[in-house]
Design a protein that fits this description.
Helix content: 25-40%
CATH topology: TIM Barrel
Family: Belongs to the TrpF family.
Structural class: alpha/beta
Catalytic activity: N-(5-phospho-beta-D-ribosyl)anthranilate = 1-(2-carboxyphenylamino)-1-deoxy-D-ribulose 5-phosphate
Distance between the termini: 20 Å
Number of strands: 10
Strand content: 15-25%
Organism: Pseudacidovorax intermedius
Radius of gyration: 16 Å
CATH superfamily: Aldolase class I
Number of domains: 1
Bound molecules: the ligand O=C(O)c1ccccc1NCC(=O)[C@H](O)[C@H](O)COP(=O)(O)O
GO molecular function: phosphoribosylanthranilate isomerase activity
Order of helices and strands: EHEHEHEHEHEEHEEEH
Protein name: N-(5'-phosphoribosyl)anthranilate isomerase
Number of helices: 7
CATH architecture: Alpha-Beta Barrel
Length: 230
């Protein structure tokens, strides 16, 4: 269950990109994936066409992730076709069946966002059952459950998570250079693999990323990996 090697490298997704310079900064800093929010109500929203345009800047092996909230399957499929090499992130109330239906054509990989209540209420979230229900997902992205679905910069109580989850996990929700190392140290031993995802913590405004904050965040992840490899 735990990573096969002590030198496991935590993968990084920088989310909510809207500008060319921010895509370039994320790639240059070492991001493994970049997220484009296709949920129109988000202040970070981009159109499919804009996501495709931004994604054309990506070198090979950096994955464009398209974020959907309760989107119709045909529009999810259209987005995945419009952005070659992309994967979907379902961040609404999509059922396992709907996620599968939306990605079946083309066999796209996809992420399921699990939105965990803040504070002690998070103890009631049954991640083991949730992960089992979404066993076809490439990974379960753990985010804080706040109004507006996501991108709120809020941290849920990581200690409430089970001590062992047989799934690839992506820790998300209020991450920043100051806390990401603690999250990696706590959660990496509990899952098949751990990645991290950040939006607010590397911004100066919603949808406007800061290159220095991105570089700081990546450096903090690398420092955490180095510490755990000792
Ligand atoms: O980022 C948004 O605006 C957003 C809107 C609606 C649904 C999902 C959204 N973002 C999803 C993400 O994957 C974010 O990176 C994640 O929620 C973490 O955000 P933050 O706490 O700001 O780092």
């Amino acid at each position: 269950m735990t990573p096969s090697s002590a030198t496991f490298r935590t993968r990084i997704k920088i989310c909510g990109l809207t500008r060319e310079q921010d895509v370039d900064a994320a790639v240059d800093a070492g991001a493994d994936a970049v997220g484009f929010v296709l949920y129109a109500k988000s202040p970070r929203a981009v159109t499919v066409e804009r996501a495709a345009e931004l994604a054309r800047r990506l070198p090979p092996f950096v994955v464009p992730v398209l974020l959907f909230v309760n989107e119709a399957p045909d529009r999810v499929q259209a987005g995945l076709v419009a952005v070659p090499g992309s994967m979907a992130q379902f961040h609404g109330d999509e059922t396992p069946e709907l996620c599968g239906q939306s990605t079946a054509e083309g066999g796209h990989r996809w992420l399921r966002a699990a939105r965990i209540p803040l504070g002690a209420a998070g103890a009631g979230f049954d991640l083991l059952n949730y992960a089992a229900s979404y066993s076809q997902a490439s990974a379960i992205l753990l985010d804080a459950h706040v109004d507006g679905y996501g991108g709120a910069g809020k941290v849920f109580d990581w200690s409430l998570l089970p001590t062992a989850v047989d799934a690839h996990l992506v820790l998300s929700g209020g991450l920043a250079p100051a806390n990401v190392g603690d999250g990696i140290a706590l959660l990496r031993p509990r899952c098949r693999s751990l990645s991290v995802d950040v939006s607010s913590g590397v911004e100066t405004a919603k949808g406007i990323k800061d290159g220095d904050k991105i570089r700081e965040f990546v450096a903090a992840v690398r420092a955490a990996d180095a510490l755990l490899a000792r």
